[in-house]
Amino acid sequence: MSAKILEGGPIAEQIKAEIMAEIEQMARPPCLVAVMVGDNTGARMYAKMQAKSCEEVGIAYELKEFSDEISEADLLGEVQSLNEDANVDGIILQMPVPEHINARTVQATIAPQKDVDGVNPTNLGRVVMGHPEAAPCTAQAAVRLVEETGIDLYGAEVVVVGHSEIVGKPVALLLLDEFATTSVCHIGTSDAGMLEEHTTRADILIVAAGVPGLIKGNMIKPGVAVIDVGINRVKDPETGKSKTVGDVAFDEAVEVAGIITPVPGGVGPITTAMLLQSTLLAAQA
Ligand code: NDP
């Protein structure tokens, strides 16, 4: 039997409508500034998407572009002035940045109260201490989808594949706080040939590895809820055109799972909505 497909679009629209209603009550609209260094197609695409979403809900959006020749010290100075600018509520660093810039240093320089992407060490620390609103937007989005499945998390077997700072680790911490029994798999698990052993145990499987089709249909338990965070560009072998796929072999998994999120159109739209929500919260604070 085919799984229920859990679309992110309608949930994102609902979140945006709530944000819009809040902004209408405010004396001035929240302001989000995106910092972009150099010219990268992916970063520019994200910036375009952010600008459109901000406009939809009434958030003022500014893209601050810097040449890829800017020194790290000068960039940190620019971030400091944004920190001090009372008209700026949220700051986000567009990834990737050129090699001579240490993204972590820049992210750590963004004032925690303006870090709407949840990447500052202070905010990651707050996640450990049980503050879900401080978490990176993608982690919040994945958790929102888990909540939408309606599965009781208390004692549920949750398996997270991927242990990055912005997805795997915070997702695991947030679900631990809901009393799920949470395991985190990574490259070591795969290299030890143990990935399938863990994934087939999951009641809820969250995959954020950046490996197209990593999770096959025979690696999941019938009826499981699958949240596919992966976004990968691959070439379609039939048409030769490039397309976006997740980390889960959707056509196989949809026949085994109980609930599954699509890629594109699952976690992605909610991640953007969470960025808007964090900007609103920063402005209200
Ligand atoms: P990272 O590359 O930072 O992390 C990937 C993680 O997966 C690492 O922990 C890595 O382990 C692990 N991993 C890699 N290969 C395997 C494997 N074969 N088996 C088990 N674990 C493996 O990626 P991100 O966390 O930033 O992103 C993950 C995916 O989510 C990407 O596809 C990205 O494009 C997507 N993404 C989607 C967003 C959305 O809004 N939908 C937003 C952000 C990201 P190790 O470090 O040990 O190698």
Describe this structure in words.
The protein has about 280 residues and is of the alpha/beta class. The protein has two domains: about 30-115, Leucine Dehydrogenase, chain A, domain 1 (Rossmann fold), CATH 3.40.50; about 135-265, 3-Layer(aba) Sandwich (Rossmann fold), CATH 3.40.50. Helices cover about 40% and strands about 15% of the residues. The protein is built from eleven helices and eleven strands. The protein has helices at about 10-25, 40-55, 70-85, 105-110, 120-130, 135-150, 170-175, 185-190, 195-200, 250-255, 265-285; strands at about 5, 30-35, 60-65, 90-95, 155-160, 180-185, 205, 225-230, 230-235, 240-245, 260. The strands form three sheets. A six-stranded parallel β-sheet has the order 1-11-8-7-5-6. α6 (about 135-150) crosses α7. The longest helix has 18 residues, at about 265-285. The chain is globular. The chain starts with a strand and ends with a helix. The mean pLDDT is about 95. The structure holds NADPH dihydro-nicotinamide-adenine-dinucleotide phosphate. NADPH dihydro-nicotinamide-adenine-dinucleotide phosphate (NDP) binds near residues 162, 167 and 209. The site of NADPH dihydro-nicotinamide-adenine-dinucleotide phosphate has 26 residues, from α8 and α11.
